[in-house]
Each structure stands twice: as C-alpha cells, then as structure tokens.
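Minimal example, chain plus 1,6-di-O-phosphono-beta-D-fructofuranose.
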Amino acid sequence: MTSSSSLGGFSIRVGSRMGVGVGSVGCDDGFVTLMEYLGKGGANVSDDLVVLFGHLEYACKRIAALVASPFNSSLSKNVGVAGGGGGGASDRDKPKPLDIVSVRFTAALYSVQIAVAAWDHDLLSGASIKNEIILSSLRNSGKVAVMASEEDDSPVWITDNGPFVVVTDPLDGSRNIDASIPTGTIFGIYNRLVELDRRPVEEKAMLNSLQSGTRLVAAAYVLYSSATILCTSFGAGAHAFTLDRSTGDFILTHPSIKIPSRGQIYSVNDARYFDWPKGLRQYIDTVRQGKGKYPKKYSARYICSLVADFHRTLLYGGVAMNPRDHLRLVYEANPLSFLVEQAGGRGSDGKNRILSIQPVKMHQRLPLFLGSSEDIEELESYGNVQQKVNPGYEV
Ligand SMILES: O=P(O)(O)OC[C@H]1O[C@](O)(COP(=O)(O)O)[C@@H](O)[C@@H]1O
C-alpha cells in the first residue's frame, strides 16, 4: 500500500457510486480512487478517456458481482451457441450459458438480472451477458466507436464519433468458475482511425480493431479473485487498484509496478511437455534444476487462468507462457504485453515482440510468453520454443 505522502497530490475524494460520473467531494483520507487518479491528472489522460474508464470500471464491478454470485455455476458449462468463441473455437472455448442472456437491466435491478440470467433460457439470444454488460457500458459512455470482443465473431460498431476502439476478452478463464478459481477481464484501447471514417461500417470496424499493439493508448485487466484488482496503464507505467467492497471504489494499491528482472517461477501447462519442441523442453528442464543463467531452482505455478497467472508473474517475476497457438493476439496478447512492458518486462511469441506483430485477423492465435525481461531473453535463446503440434486438448 502506498503511504499517504506519496499520494499527497490527491485531496478530492469521489464518493462511492453505483453508476459513473456521480462524483462528490469528500474528505482527504489519503486514499486515491481510480477516478481520482485519472481525474486529478495522475495519469495525464484526456477527459474522454476518464469517462470511458468510469464506464469500464462500472462494467467490471458488475461482472465481479456476477462471478461471485450463487448463480454463477452455469457460467462454466458449455452450450452450443452460434458464433462467438473466436472463429473455429473448440467446445471448450465456446461461450458459457450465463453468457447467453441479453436482457438489459438497470443497476437497481441487478440482483434480478443475476437470478433471471441463471434460469431463464427463453431469453437466450446468442449474446453473452458479460459481453452485454461491457457493450452497454461502452454504449452509455458515448466514447467508443467500435468494440471487438473475443466472444463475438466480428467487431460491433457503436457510434460514428466515438474517439476510441475497445478490444476485450470479457471473462477469460470462465471454465474455472465452478471451482471458484480466479477469472479476469482484459481490455485494450486504441484511438479511432479517422482516416477510415468514410469506409463501409464492417470494414472500418475490422480495420480499427486490427491495429498494431504499438498503437495502444491504454490497456487493463481486472482480476476477480480473493480481491478484485484492476491493473492499468496509459503508457506511463502500470498501476493496480483494489476494489474496496465497502464503498465500491477501486483504490490505488500498487502504483508503478516493476516486474523483477528475474523471477523463480515458470507458469505453463506442463501436461503438454511431450508436444513441446526441443528448445522449450530444454529451457524448462534447465531452470527447474537451477542450471540456467539464474542459478536458482525455479518453481512451477499454473492456475490455467490467464489473468491470474499474469498478475502473479507481474508481481513476483518469472515467465507465464502458453507456447501453443491458443491465446489471441488482439484480445489477450497485445493488452497484456503492453502492461508487462510498462512494468519493465517483455511480451514475446518466442521469437518476436508481441506488440510489433501486425494482426491480420480478429481471432488470430499465437504462442505467448510474458514476464521478466531476463527470463524471457534466456527462454528465447533456446531458439525453438513455439509448440506447433496443437491437438484439441479436452481439458
Ligand atoms: O489449455 P491450455 O493450453 O493450458 O490453455 C489455458 C489458457 O486458456 C485460457 O483458458 C483461455 O482460453 P479461452 O480464451 O479459450 O477461454 C486461459 O485462461 C488459460 O491460460
């Protein structure tokens, strides 16, 4: 927790809120909320981006409540909905049932929403409730031209003059929900490319969403775990805020996160060992025996929930990886690579910097290695670390 002195520049407290944009002046208690941090110039971002973040924050609080609700178990069961899942997804990857209710409720009716979502399958429309929560927040913000979601086949055009493009994975790791394992939401934010304004809607929606990661204006993830944590960057460091459930505010708890240049943890689905290329096997065998450049025996940690594995890696160092073509460049790899770079680490596909890879299709998948700069460098030095054999794993 940051001391009050390092937070001294912030003296206006914005009251807790169910909606957004409803600020009230409170006392100087030494805590900085996300909205204060943004609004008081802590991140030096435009008013438009502050408004957008207010709406994203609200959407994530609603998802946090949904994930923690007694009705969340149906989130984890597969159903055969059309679309979504990112073009050719396996059953494992398809949206889950709480995903498939598209009724909108006001904040006051939110508890009703959860209950209805849990059982009213007559209301199914093929849309995801998490998607809908985010989409309705983005619409209400008035700041977003297009949203591209991992759960949709194509980007959704929202409003012509919205200054931003939002790419999102609304709830990564949702198949873990039955076991109360952490899950997370991922966002990337780009400026709308005004030079595309006159193109047909579908075309400009797609091209705006396929921007290179180097053009990200901001990125964030929200981890739904023992605490709900929102970690974000606007291009000047990575900062994490923890949800204070008593007030509904995200409080700055981890300013200027610096990932250690070395960690002692590798995070990977070890069961795939026999499908790995020689280089990756050698790397893992070496570091777990303490025979790498960093002469410590590494430990394995794998939650199998990307945001949770990434968050731990950001704080403790090491490497979080998925060496097969599974994770998505647009929705997962780019935003998380932006964040890890802002914390002093690296995001790689095993050969190239993730942010420099130009996306060519919305649901493009690739190997992903995120972590401490020296650990990633050592891993890449083994040459062949990308798993090209990618059978349809069942679990
Ligand atoms: O089966 P693997 O290769 O271990 O993949 C697990 C990874 O897939 C994810 O579940 C994401 O997959 P989806 O995007 O298809 O939901 C991550 O949360 C996790 O890190």
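The radius of gyration is 20 Å. The pocket of 1,6-di-O-phosphono-beta-D-fructofuranose is lined by residues 93, 172-173, 269, 304-306, 322, 324, 326, 393 (CB under 6 Å).
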